[in-house]
Prior knowledge:
The protein is an alpha/beta fold. The protein folds into 3 domains: about 5-55, no CATH class; about 60-190, Rossmann fold; about 210-365, Rossmann fold (3-Layer(aba) Sandwich). Helix content is about 50%, strand content about 15%. It is built from 16 helices and 12 strands. It has helices at about 5-15, 20-40, 45, 50-55, 105-120, 140-155, 175-185, 210-225, 245-255, 275-285, 330-335, 355-360, 370, 375-390, 395-420, 425-445; strands at about 60-70, 75-85, 90-95, 125-130, 165, 235-240, 260-265, 265-270, 300-305, 315-320, 340-345, 365. The strands form 2 sheets. The protein has a 7-stranded mixed β-sheet with strand order 9-8-7-6-10-11-12, with helices on both faces. Helix 9 links the parallel strand 6 (about 235-240) and strand 7. The longest helix has 25 residues, at about 395-420. The two termini are about 25 Å apart. The site of NADPH dihydro-nicotinamide-adenine-dinucleotide phosphate has 24 residues, from helix 9. NADPH dihydro-nicotinamide-adenine-dinucleotide phosphate binds near residues 170, 321, 347 and 373.
Amino acid sequence: MNMQSYVNEIFETVKKRNPGESEFHQAVKEVLDSLVPVLEKHPEYVTEGVVDRIVEPERMIMFRVPWVDDNGKVQVNRGFRVQFNSAIGPYKGGLRLHPSVNGSIIKFLGFEQIFKNSLTGLPIGGGKGGSDFDPKGKSDREVMRFCQSFMSELYRHIGQFTDVPAGDIGVGGREIGYLFGQYKKLKNSYDAGVLTGKGLNYGGSLTRTEATGYGLIYFVERMLNEKGNSIKDKTVVVSGSGNVAIYAIQKAQELGAKVVACSDSAGYIYDKNGIDVEIVKRLKEVERKRIKEYLNYHKDAEYHEGSTDVWTIKCDVALPCATQNEIDESSAKTLIDNGVIAVAEGANMPSTLEATELFLENNVLFGPAKAANAGGVAVSALEMSQNSIRLSWTFEEVDEKLKQIMINIYENASAAAKEYGKEDNLVVGANIAGFKKVADAMMAHGVI
Ligand code: NDP
């Protein structure tokens, strides 16, 4: 059997079953194309329909989320949870609150989560959820009422051994607190392991807040070290100014890099003296303000409207940490023309398929999201471990485990790429290494 035709057929079925869901199609296409050499070597995956099954979620829930705003008006949002694959552990993946959320976004994120979670080496399956609720401009009380309503439906579908949500865009410590409070009330049970990203005083893990950004930089450093290089003294551009961006900036600076830019959805800041990460933290984590306000603290920095123009800044290392498809072919070309040597994805699927292809063709070191941003979910799994043993590890202990996990992810992705004749292609390597573990577990469980 011609395996390329086989995966093409599966892709056609996915498109037919999920019409108009372009982000989901994009995520599936990338994985399917990577799997061709694996299927040639392991025809048993074809016989057992592993690929046909892995592209179909085990379960997808969509629900009404009604809540009352501060003016007494009833608002209705739509909630989602996709429980994509539980072959190697309970479904695990964040909740995203953003007006752009729809079935396609949730499915692409849930699908990628299967492979990312597998790569961490920890026992977690793939899931994702969220709502088209926009937390921007909402009062704390409104966010609380929304979260309570959201959890009033979600609680019956999750559990520490079933499905463990966490944060993502628009969901940080405040939202996890409200969600956990409502879950606890409805269940009358202190199941700390049902959510991760919790506050430190009620079952959270040290290092979880920093984990995705720190993990991204540990991955970049490992990738550069392989080529006898390091992030020290490199000029870095980061997009976004949320959880992932902030801690990527902090760790990159700690390792001696100069980070000159970051952004939000309205525009970007360029600070030739290096981004003052404490100010970004204050603006975004405490005051919930726009990145433009950075100029109030650093008069000689520049603010430019238009978030994607951040990629026009000359840099050695580019770290997209905002959202999907933020680097298209033209931005990729600009980065390459400006001499970028490494790109690593803090956000999920921030590079289009064309942009990714261009980076690989031009020998830019490329860390795909599934591998490079897996530090967040890895520490979430360590939070679940600590909840189970009812103990808390120190910051240093968790950070050390995180570092080792990121190094292992690099080694495994790199080895898989080599084994299948695609040396240095970590996109293919991450997809294959993530897939094989899940596929073997699915084979062991039979056709279910
Ligand atoms: P946050 O909500 O903390 O921050 C998101 C940042 O990205 C903000 O600066 C936001 O700007 C910007 N942004 C969001 N949507 C858009 C958009 N459509 N266009 C331009 N900019 C946008 O989210 P996180 O930092 O947690 O998540 C960022 C990315 O990292 C996402 O892709 C997420 O899936 C991924 N990720 C997150 C993990 C985590 O642990 N948090 C783990 C792994 C991946 P603004 O404030 O203007 O909206």
